[in-house]
Amino acid sequence: MKRLGRGMTAVLAVAVTCMLLEHRFTVYAAEKPQKSKMTITVRSSRNATSFSRLEIDSPNIAKALIHAKKENDYYPPYLTDIDVALLQGEHEQHYRLERSGNLWDEPAMTSLLLPAAVAGRLLSYAEGLRHTHYGKLTRWDEARNIITRKSIFSVTDLESGLTFKVQRRAGSAHADVQPLTKEDSKIMKSIYNGRWSWKRKAIVVQSGHGRLAASMNGMPHGGDGIPGNGFSGHFCIHFLGSTTHRSDVPDPVHQMMVYKASGNLRAYFDSAAPEVLAESFIEAMYQQDPDMLRQVSEGAPREKLAYFLQEMESLKSIRIHVQRTKLKAKKAKHLASEERLSAEIKLPVFIQKKGKPFERSSVYSFFFRREFPQSPWRIEDVQFRYSSFKP
Q: pTM, whole model, 2 decimals?
């Protein structure tokens, strides 16, 4: 009996020891910290399939994000092209980087308030990533000496990331270029969804001198063809300050796309006159680019912006119906009063909704205000009504 008792005691001791070991292992596994993974991504728009990404291995920044104080907010000024993702285990949280360096949780409509040092590092990482993603803002007088006539260089669509080669053939106010081969023409046409178009697109020109911010249209026109390239004519590439064949004033939409290609769209809008901002608003809707519309509409009532964001999704096309000469006359008249603090711009447009066979005419009225003559113009309100103006 004594031996049996000692045997049972030994078995119980082993069992208890095993239970303790199992218990310790279970607790250890539950308390093992999960490594956090952070990435910063830059895209020219939310719909862009082309992006640049940076992985950040910094436990201190990840910890600051996890324990950040949250504050309710409504659409703070943020960098529309920067996404910050924090991955913990299987859960990934996405934020927008605010201009202050804090993070904006869009679904929750809250800002994450970060220490100044952490906010500064995030802004620094984002700026470095943007520098590699976008092109350099380059004036036409400089660009024309980089991409000289007969030179061959690459063009990359900022939204899709598709790249094709071209040759500059002519052009004094801007670059007249052609796809180099039939395959290059095919790639270019695919950027425009298989149909040639006058639509402006933000591009990066890549040569031996680096990456230059530019804008192109997608319509073959004129002469001077490269035999066998499947492209009848040439198309135009614009840089900062370049003009069209028929005007000595830079095309505002081309210039807007040049600034977008450089990652400086905010600077373009901050320096723009009300007339240019009104045209940019219509162009943002035509491009169906919600981030661009948000930037150009900074200052507008949020409910009005929400309405136009929804309206934009229903559009097949929207175009301004007014001659450029008339627009120029209006601009000259308005610019004569540089001390003005308010302005109203009316733009007649043609609108075609998805699934509708006909266009409808409308008039968009833009109301602008600024605090001082040196302050940026902001849209105070946008109204529209259907009209019966004749083409």
A: 0.85
